[in-house]
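Hey, resending since the last one bounced:
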Amino acid sequence: MRRLECSVWTNGGRGEVLGGTKVRQANFDRQRRTVTLVLDGVEVGANIAKPSFWTATCGELIQKEIGVWVRLWGLRPGERVWLLVVEPGVKFELLGS
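The structure tokens again:
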């Protein structure tokens, strides 16, 4: 399985995984509305249908549960994490570094 290098960010209760536009273009399908993230064995849907996800400068998966996961792992903004491609374009597992 492929691993995609990303970083984390949190803004209050919201959590974000920043993969950047190259990760987004190569691994996400604009026709899909959501992708599944696996966070410590728990599956969570993340919205990728919002227009901001597809702008020239965005490539962020934003979900409240990501913020919880980031705090549980004691991660700080900018730290590296991995998205393990479980099912291309559909399902990804978030792994600490």
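The CA atoms of residues 23 and 75 lie 21 Å apart.

Sorry for the duplicate.
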